[in-house]
Amino acid sequence: MVPKLGNILAAVWIPVLLLIGWQAAGAADPVVRGVISSPLDVALALAKGVADGSVLADLSISLQRALLGWALTLLITVPLAIAAGRLRLFSRMLVPVVDLLRPISPIAWIPLAVLWFGIGLGSKLLIVFVVTFFVIFLNVYDAVIHIPPVFLNVCRTFTLSRWFLLSNVVLPASLRGVVLGAQYGLSTAWGGVIVAEMVGANHGVGYQMLASANQFDPTGVISYMVLIGLVGMTLNSLFLLACRRVLLKFPEASASHG
């Protein structure tokens, strides 16, 4: 379906006004331009980085780190959250630990990650795990503990096996929580790897953005900020397409959280 013109205008008018104001501020005062650059300068810097391959090389490194950490966190966290939601023993063991660690800022984990793993891949994966674990865990756990009791009662009434309960009730009913947790976790994984690269890395988007700041280059800093936002928005949009297909294939997952 082709978007209506009104919807397109509603979505772009604020960004357009901001760009116009930003460009005008930079053009009116050279001092201001030296601090905040201008949209044209940022676009040219990004285009230059893409043309010479430097931006794409760092972007590839950062994306690989973020996606690998996100995928590993999913594989670890989803089973733990389902177990905590269905088994009282796991809930008593895991939920207090989650409540204890969740308030700790991910930035506070960076020195420990560097001490344990240096500035290699391991420290980035640890930070991505920390920033995404809680988002995924809480979404999946909430979905599992809110499965409609009628579904569980039917399984008990007919003395169906635990495997049947897990595969035909728990997993489909918790699928929406898994998808939402994965979606939000993907965004936090992308942001987390950028923060990790600022502190302990010699390659990547976060490293290059901090290097630009150390060189008093606002154009470079803002261009990488724009790149981070565009990539994050693209990742989210692509994942939303996958979410819709999954939920359409398993409508009971959507209905159970209606």
Outline of this structure?
The protein has 258 residues and is mainly alpha-helical.
Overall description:
The structure is a single chain. This protein is an all-alpha fold and 258 residues long. Helices cover 86% and strands 0% of the residues. It has twelve helices and no strands. It has helices at 5-28, 30-36, 39-52, 54-86, 88-101, 106-117, 121-145, 149-157, 162-199, 205-214, 218-249, 251-255. The radius of gyration is 22 Å and the shape is globular.
Instruction: Output the helix-strand order.
Output: HHHHHHHHHHHH
Total strands: the figure is 0
β-strand amount: under 5%
| Uncertain ranges | none
Tell me, briefly, the overall form: globular
- Report mean pLDDT, rounded to a whole number: 84
Strand-pairing-aware structural class:
mainly alpha
Helix % is over 70%
First-residue to last-residue Cα separation = 25 Å
Provide a count of the helices: 12
Sheet bearing the most strands, described? Answer: none
Give me the Rg, rounded: 22 Å
